[in-house]
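Obj: model holo form, ligand = zinc ion.
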Amino acid sequence: MRALRLHGPGDVRLDYVPPPEADAATAVVQVEACGVCGSDVHFVDGSARTGHVPISLGHEVAGRIVSAPNDDFAPGTEVVAEVGRFCLACPRCLEGRPNLCERARILGIHVDGGFADLVAVPVDSIVIRPPEVPVAAAATAVDAGATALHAVERRAQVRAGESVLVIGAGGLGTYGIQFAQLAGAGAVIVADTNARALERAANLGVDETVLVEPGGSVGRQVKMLCDGGVDAAIEFVGSASAVDAAVKSIRPGGRAVAVGVGIEPVVSLPVVLWSNNEYSLLGSYGSLPGDTATVLAALADGSVVAPETMDVDLADGAELLAALAAGDRTGPARPIIRP
Ligand SMILES: [Zn+2]
Ligand SMILES: [Zn+2]
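Output (holo structure tokens):
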């Protein structure tokens, strides 16, 4: 079968490899769609590392069951795969935070992922796809959707009536905006460098949009729009400037949440402003088991809409990843690899 494999920084190849086989705990899924995440780009540009190389990238898998142990799932069943499998025994798993598991096995990072014709998936990571959800949208639910849900609900803890700033209106941000609205946020402000992304955010019914321009101050603009700052600011970009903007947009006692994946160190405010204003800066990583099913149900009943996506043939995947790693933006649409 074909697999888009990372061999090292800057080295992604479409290889021909033996197909995976089902075993007692693993099903084989025929990949129909696999989303391209910001972290995939970082594996290619060398700023983040996979568990080993070569490895098939891709952790937003949607497809059909080819074979499963014990006939758990009939061949042809439309499914998605949760991103991670956790040990359930380490201290973080035992405290109910398996997304921080010391022995997590993440598709496309520790085991071969979904930029391939077929992928092996642990049976307990499989979630059945509702028929109302198109396959590309279902792929985005797995990571972009579930990660945004975790960030809004558990890390930012958005409550009814609160004001929320979302920085970055791509795949994760589009979900983040809608989960903040579903949580009853009183005002949702969205900031992005891309005018088209802001247009799409406006169509979701957000209250204000802020176009981020070189030399501009998002924090100052947000504080003018939302008297004294927002209750919670969530950045989905992963740059130092996005985290900086989040911190500088919150009210005294407010929460800033960093979700994006980046390597720049964050230097922001003088210590006295942190202490005197009791600002919080929180990280948010991945999602918990069950979040993918929650996002799929929200897509199925229409309470959220999926981000804009763009199909890319598996054969063109290496070229796409190289372009993204070189900094070429494809626009706000989330690329979806289609084998
Ligand atoms: Zn991801
Ligand atoms: Zn664990």
